[in-house]
Amino acid sequence: xxxxxxxxxxxxxxxxxxxxxxxxxxxxxxxxxxxxxxxxxxxxxxxxxxxxxxxxxxxxxxxxxxxxxxxxxxxxxxxxxxxxxxxxxxxxxxxxxxxxxxxxxxxxxxxxxxxxxxxxxxxxxxxxxxxxxxxxxxxxxxxxxxxxxxxxxxxxxxxxxxxxxxxxxxxxxxxxxxxxxxxxxxxxxxxxxxxxxxxxxxxxxxxxxxxxxxxxxxxxxxxxxxxxxxxxxxxxxxxxxxxxxxxxxxxxxxxxxxxxxxxxxxxxxxxxxxxxxxxxxxxxxxxx
Length: 288
Known about the structure:
The protein is an alpha/beta fold. The protein has helices spanning 10-20, 39-43, 56-62, 79-95, 115-129, 143-156, 172-183, 204-215, 226-235, 240-254, 264-269, 276-286, and strands at 2-5, 28-32, 47-50, 68-71, 99-105, 134-139, 158-161, 191-192, 220-223. Helix 4 links the parallel strand 4 and strand 5. Helix 4 runs parallel beside helix 5 (115-129) and helix 8 (204-215) crosses helix 12.
């Protein structure tokens, strides 16, 4: 049985859908914090069990009978995040899983300027020490995050963000399809995959130009000092630690940590990844 954690989240839910295109529902199980949110999956024959990375006993039940387990990284950063990932890895090992797949990020490394990438590196160390074959999906930076940062500028006409660098903004849908391919039996990756990215890396200046082309309005990219950006976040109610972590995205991008565009994602999904232009066009249409 293939078990997917976080199956009601933005990425996990899409992974399950793409996995069900490839394997029968009776071969798929999900581990979710709230089984009620996965009722539609249960109705389709997917095994739904409650499981939380903070509850080893619950994970043991959720992972029972697993041959492959996908650990979807938690949407937080810091030491507690890595502890939860280790709990999930330990439960996967105890379940007898023959492969653990983990959703990491391109740029993962212990010296990254972005906390999440350091967390991914620590989790990969735990996977390497687990004794179970493992694959870490080095996913391109989520395009949804880029669109989130861009959104205020689409209204005001000014994208005021810290200095950045090129980023391979990559669609959730493409990453979900690649994960499903690997879970369904693609075993050529041992350890970290090559970067799973869109075909090009773009800066926010590039995004401003795209937005102008698609809207017919002038969209200007201006640079906000790091300290001013952080102060604005904190003044808006963002915890100071989170503000520092968000700023890390820009400092890491300036170092080129998210700039490598590779062919592996296209090879896995059998087509070119969705472009940021297409995603931005869909975003604009959905908010018209």
